[in-house]
Amino acid sequence: MKRTKITLLSLLAVIVLSCTSPTENFNIHLSPTFYKYVIEVELYDIIDPDTRFAANTTVAISGQDGAGIYNIDGTKNVELNFGSLQLMVERSFEPLPGAPLKFTLTLNANDYNEIILPITIEEADYFQKLEVGMLNPNNLPAGITNSTKTATVTTSGQLSQPLVIQAGSNDSLSKVEMTVPNDITFSDADGNQVTGSNLNVNILSLSDTSVSAQQALPNGGSMVQTVMVNGAPVSLVLPPSATFKVDMDMGGTAITQFSGQGVQMKIDIPNNMLNEDFDRAYQAGDSVTLISNSAGDAAWENDGTFLVQDDGQGNLFVDPNITHLSFKKIVSRNLLIAINASQNFDISHRLKPGTNTSPISGNYAFLVFVQRGGNPRFDFSFRRTKTSTITATKSALLSIPGLAKANNVIVIIPTSFGTINSSLYDITFTDVTASGTTIEVNPKGVGVDVSFSLYCAGDNAIIDPPAGVKMFYKKSSDVNASYQHLYTFTQQNITVNSGRVYQLEDNTDYDFRALFNDTQVDTNNVTVIDGTHYNVTLPASACAQLF
Amino acid sequence: MKKNSIFALVLGLSLLGTSAQAQLFKNKSTEKETTEEKATEETATEEKAATKKSKTDPKKATKEEIKADHFLGYDGKGAVAINVSSIGLGVEYAHNFHRHFNGRVRLNFLTLSDLSQELEFNGINTLVTANADVFNVDFLVEYLPFPQSNFKIVGGLSYVSAGKGDINIAFVDEIAYGDISIAPEDVGDMTIGIDYSGVAPYFGIGFGRAVPRKAVGFAVELGTLYVGSPDVSLTATNMLSETSVEQGQLQENFNDYKWMPFINMRLSFRL
Asked: Is residue A196 within 8 Å of residue A250, measured between CB atoms?
């Protein structure tokens, strides 16, 4: 009896204990979606763009929505890490349809010119990457020159005699001569007259073709700039013409305004410079528009239309009077008028024959090459777009208004931003018509299908990587190779944990690097095998931050 | 000793199912047969004695006669009862139709609405909110093997019209991320739902007659319903929303939970 009782009770215990626990193999999935919008600002030295920017940099955030901008770790301590700023938008400040978020970054790095960067984020523009060229005035690249002159100031705050300063980059045919008269007074940004003993004038000249020069343009350095046209901001690809930035100070106080007629600038119009209005070289009697951009302004303003003149020796010029100091640039008159004739370009992503034709979607930055016909000097210009978020599906349209000429061919090459690297893809152009161009993108490599999951063992949780995490890679066998960008996690793709990665080769060892804010995690000698799922167990410290 | 052995036997049977039941019955049949034979003999002796003493209508039996034969106190009578059980409150009607058997119809219902409790998991304060909606109708037969004893074995079928419950787990406190506070509603919550329904066999044992000998009776019962695997649902919101993919795993884990334990206390009133 006793033995039977024990056997029964034991059997009962076994039965109870053999029931599956309700939480067996059950994982909580955590997706850190308490922030959606990420802005990455990567700084580089214009003269050495491939080296990580390491100068001590202070960052100030201002503007109507500046209060909602945080460092990606949720603090207000915005710092440069690994050459980049990573910013996040607090939920209550997220942009709404028709109500974009706007703020301004002011970057001051030792030995470099201050950069004031206005940033606008539209609704659903979850990830924006800006590459900002930093200019060291004491170490200028080719295509950029600095011209400085000083003049004595009288007690009345006027120059003792007119000051004439000439400037222009060595590789540019476009020169400028500025004459500061001795019958004007000088004011600061608040309109207060500034007095002192000396007036210092500096003209930064950016050539019309140099890549470096274009990287020094305002708002992130790009030939695609926002211009106010009829009171509305319009995104335009600016033409190849010299750009000048004039700065003045008196006794250490920056001058921004003048009295009277202001300061006269004589700007050369190089021979054979294309007049886009008539598709020929400029002639005396044509008109040009002067646009200007003051520090911190998101858009260029129209400073007026001016007549092209001949100096009697066959040299063309315009001589506008300027009343405020800023970036100055000559553009064709009709460029602004032709903005309604926008040109759309169909980005057709077609994968290699034999692979599926599902669209490549993600965030891209584009190098925009504009090839202009009819002018041997300006038949090729290098332009780079601001690296804003563009979701390219199979038939996405990238609209670049302001280029109505049929003989302009826009060549768009994806850069290393996001999931596509131009060195990995063959770009071909088909169907070049007046209404558009189809760009075919074919990956060069076969790639591998891989998937992953991030796991916090102590919390039994599977984690999605937060938006802003960047992945880099290099072959383990290439000891001296530098890491290349592989992938950036954004709000749009953080739940995607599988896919074809064209940068990687099957059965090859790689070193991977993950960067997030000030954290770098290296994982070396990982053998990538096609079709493999990689379980990554996060360190307890990382999990502790999440739970 | 014998009663304890039988108790252990029946409890084991209720968990093992029919096949095990057959096996165990076979093992214990000898002992049980002996016990039953003795009970039957005693009952027959009592009946004989009662018949000899009086041929009066059982409903009009005297106290002495009832004292001599307990059955005369509730023979053919009915009773109503209220139940408090592990699956809610219930009302019941029982009727005696044999010295050893009572028939019972029982309604159980349980409604919980937003029953909340703060609990801590891994140092995280959570608010657990439960809801339940249970309604079932039981059709039972109660077997009293020993006339002198109110020990009973109950079996029957239960129709589970509604057997739903859900638990919602939500964060209570704000979570700090740097200088940013994440509100609990932004973190999200999880709701696990369980749904049993259908016809379920019932088996139980206890003490206390369905139709009491006296005007009022009290009974306790321990049993189990075989309800089958429940339908499990899992929803999660916001930062936890992807957890809903684990619904399949949760369903698999709950597939073993086919037996619903039942503990009942009953107060009955003889009609």
From this structure: yes
Closest Cα in chain B, distance from residue A391 (Å): 24
Note the pLDDT of residue A277.
Answer: 76
User: Cβ contact (<8 Å) for A26 and B256?
Assistant: no
Instruction: Check CB contact under 8 Å for A9 and B8.
Output: yes
- The per-residue pLDDT for B66 is 65
A273-295: b or e for each residue (b if 16 or more CB lie within 10 Å)? bbbbbeeebbeeebebbbbbbeb
The three-class DSSP label of residue A426 is strand
Respond yes or no on whether ipTM tops 0.90: no
CB contact under 8 A, B178 and A70: yes
Counted residue by residue, chain B has a size of 271
Q: Tell me the one-letter amino acid at B29.
A: S
| Total CB pairs under 8 A between chain A and B | 92
Q: Is the pTM higher than 0.80?
A: no
Angle between helices B18-53 and B2-16 (to 10 degrees): 140
C-alpha A545/C-alpha B175 separation (Å) is: 11
Q: Chain B interface, mutation test: which of A33, A36, A517, most B Cβ atoms within 10 Å?
A: A33
Token pair 């951009």 in the structure block, residue = A293
- Cβ neighbours for B238, distance < 8 A, ≥ 6 positions apart: A33, B185, B186, B187, B188, B189
- What is the spatial distance between Cα B220 and Cα B206, in angstroms, rounded to a whole number? 5
Contacts of A27 in chain B (CB under 8 A): 243, 246
